[in-house]
């Protein structure tokens, strides 16, 4: 995944529960072929494929 996100460090626990902080770990686990998709439609199709492999 060439678009890794970095989670910040915060003093307040409430900040850790914000959607953008919760999604970082999952985004970074996505395969590169999903993240590097050339279009939104391709991203959705590849994401569906990647998620179906997890189930």
Automatic annotation (TrEMBL):
The protein's name: Nidogen G2 beta-barrel domain-containing protein
